[in-house]
Write a structure and sequence with these properties.
about 475 residues; alpha+beta; Thrombin, subunit H
Length: about 475
């Protein structure tokens, strides 16, 4: 009878062990992934977001009015009488150029007409897809520029432009043509500096018309404007300290999307920030021809900062720069926990992330249900297979993604690299799983219930003698 007891006990223990360690759980949600694997998996979903602001603006157009012209003539006449200027046309013209450039503010009036032009001001940040049919998240401040923001960017452009030699040369040419005389470098530089101050102090923004585009992979703002995929804003909060969220929609094709974390990260939890930093001190430094590339930075959660509009910003020591705004902050399993949003200033040493919970108000408003979708799952699995040198398995998955996601700038490289690795004999793809094992894995929960039932029957049979009052020895 002892053997029956042993059989029942072993059977039950085996199934307890099997139920505690079911096959196929490696790499499930919540498992820790290497940062490089997270980066490679999420890159296709993280895009450059550009708001190209077509701005009509104006600055004063300085002119010498009739009253000032009369005063200038009187000054020249006095100089001729004093013998400091020769009484001929060439000398009078040279003297006029000297008087005007020595003190432009005394002669030019700013009350007349204004010089008007239209230019494009670029706001560039990051964003990421949350559905495979084209909905994505970014910060509101990436797509929404106030008049003051636009003016600041214009002032930066004017300041930079008027400091260039081309502007000084145009001032020299204009003055020389107007006075029909030679203008020295010193005179042209003086007048150019004065004009720069006038323009900067009285830039007026008259109208702004934004258009929105996204780009996949490395691009410059100018390239995005020409080649980017148009998107539209479907829901929007307000910039920090408001709920700094915008939901965008791209209407072309399918896209790799990212999963959103169900729970916020705890203090000290690792964070990966992915985006397109500009490597610059201010947004004004992002020139239209500067190429922005996707970048990963690492850090951890460092407390929270209460915001006036009722949400808590998540602090992190992960590096963030201009251009990172709107990009995903991810946990170590590759799920999005928030949006990179603003940098700490003053005594604050941390940067701050807008939690994903805040975005749900706006996705709900836009009737969007964030979901990673099969395309994102397939791409993540392909990257995992590739990193394990399962090139043949990875190739099949990458080829499937390539057929569905025409905008993915990375998948073609993976297809090519997988093919070359297979040709070189480096493939380590394991043999296919037999059909019966595939069936067992697919129906494991149901099979487990059956095995438990069978275990109970065996145990009951083993215990039957005792239930009928017989002793364990059979007597």
């Amino acid at each position: 009878m002892g053997s029956r007891w042993a059989l029942a006990w072993v059977f039950v223990c085996v199934f307890v062990a099997l139920s505690a360690c079911p096959p196929g759980t490696a790499g499930t949600a919540g498992s820790q992934l290497p940062p490089t694997q997270i980066f490679e998996s999420v890159k296709p979903a993280v895009v450059l977001v550009e708001a190209a602001q077509s701005v009509n603006w104006s600055v004063p157009e300085p002119s010498i009015d009739q009253s000032k012209a009369g005063q200038l003539n009187e000054r020249l006449l006095a100089m001729v009488r004093a013998g400091t200027v020769a009484p001929n046309q060439d000398a009078l013209r040279r003297a006029t150029a000297q008087l005007i450039t020595d003190d432009p503010g005394s002669w030019f009036s700013l009350a007349g007409s204004r010089y008007r032009r239209t230019d494009t001001v670029y706001l560039v940040g990051s964003g990421f897809f949350v559905t495979e049919d084209g909905y994505l998240l970014t910060n509101a401040h990436v797509v929404q520029a106030s008049q003051e923001d636009v003016k600041r960017l214009l002032v930066g452009g004017v300041t930079q432009g008027t400091a260039e030699q081309a502007f000084v040369q145009s001032v020299r040419d204009g003055l020389a043509q107007g006075l029909q005389t030679q203008v020295t470098d010193q005179q042209a530089s003086k007048l150019a500096r004065w004009l720069s101050g006038v323009y900067v102090s009285d830039v007026q923004v008259e109208s702004v018309r934004p258009t929105y585009r996204i780009a996949f992979g490395s691009h410059s703002p100018k390239e995005i404007e020409i080649q980017g995929l148009p998107v539209r804003v479907v829901a929007q909060g307000s910039p920090v300290p408001g709920k700094d969220v915008a939901v965008l929609k791209a209407d072309a094709g399918l896209h790799v999307a990212l999963p959103l974390a169900a729970q916020p990260p705890g203090q000290g939890a690792g964070l990966e920030v992915v985006g397109y930093p500009c490597g610059c001190q201010t947004a004004e430094d992002v020139g239209p021809d500067k190429t922005l590339v996707p970048t990963l930075t690492q850090g951890s959660v460092q407390g929270e900062l209460p915001m006036p509009s009722g949400w808590l910003a998540t602090g992190t020591n992960a590096r963030m720069e201009h251009g990172n705004s709107g990009g995903p902050a991810l946990d170590r399993s590759g799920s999005v926990v928030g949006l990179a949003t603003f940098r700490g200033g003053g005594s604050q040493t941390y940067n701050f992330v807008l939690p994903i919970a805040v975005t749900r108000e706006f996705t709900k408003q836009a009737h969007v249900r964030p979901a990673r979708g099969t395309l994102g799952e397939r791409y993540t699995r392909a990257v995992s297979e590739y990193r394990q040198q399962h090139y043949r398995a990875a190739l099949a998955l990458f080829q499937q993604v390539a057929k569905l996601d025409a905008h993915n700038p990375y998948v073609a490289g993976y297809v090519d690299s997988s093919n070359r690795a297979i040709a070189a004999g480096r493939d380590r793809t394991p043999p296919p799983t037999p059909d019966y094992l595939r069936w067992l894995l697919a129906y494991w929960p149901y099979a487990l219930i059956g095995f438990w039932a069978l275990g109970a029957v065996v145990a009951a049979v083993a215990l039957r003698p005792r239930l009928f009052g017989r002793s364990p020895t059979g007597r």
